[in-house]
Amino acid sequence: MVSVALLLCGIQMPYAANPGIIPVPQSCVVKKGIFTFDAKTNIYIQPDNAEMRNAVVLIQNLFSESAGFSLDIASRIRPSNIVVCRINKAIKHA
Quick check: helix, strand or coil at residue 62? Predict the structure, then answer.
C-alpha cells in the first residue's frame, strides 16, 4: 500500500507552500487524514476527454512501476477509494 497526505485549498503550514505537486497549486492546506492507494484504487476521468486519458495513462504507468500495482480507470465516481480527475475550465491556458 502507498499512503499520501490529504491536501486541500489554503496555506497553513510551511510544507503547504511547496507540497511537491506539479503544477504547484496556488494554495493548499494540509489536514489530518490519509488516502491509501492500493490495488482497488481507481481513477475516474470524464470519458470524452482524450487529453486527460493520455495524462492518466502516464500516471498509471509511473504508478505501476513504483508501487507494483496498477490503478484502473473507473467508468463512474464511487464514494470511496477513487481519485477523480477533472479539468477546471476556469483556469485559462497559458
Answer: helix
| Spatial contact of 73 and 56, defined as CB atoms under 8 Å apart | yes
* Lookup result for grid cell 482524450: 50
Q: How many CB atoms lie within 10 A of CB 43?
A: 19
Determine whether 11 is exposed, middle or buried from the number of CB atoms within 10 Å of its CB (0-12, 13-18, 19+). middle
Nearest residue to 61 via CA among 71, 51, 53: 71
Q: Please, what are the averages of pLDDT over each run of 10 residues along the chain (94 residues)? A: 41 53 73 88 85 86 88 88 83 67
pLDDT of residue 43: 92
Task: Give residues with Cβ within 8 angstroms of 80, minimum separation 6.
Answer: none
How do 29-37 and 2-8 pair as beta strands?
antiparallel
- C-alpha span between 66 and 79 (Å, rounded): 26
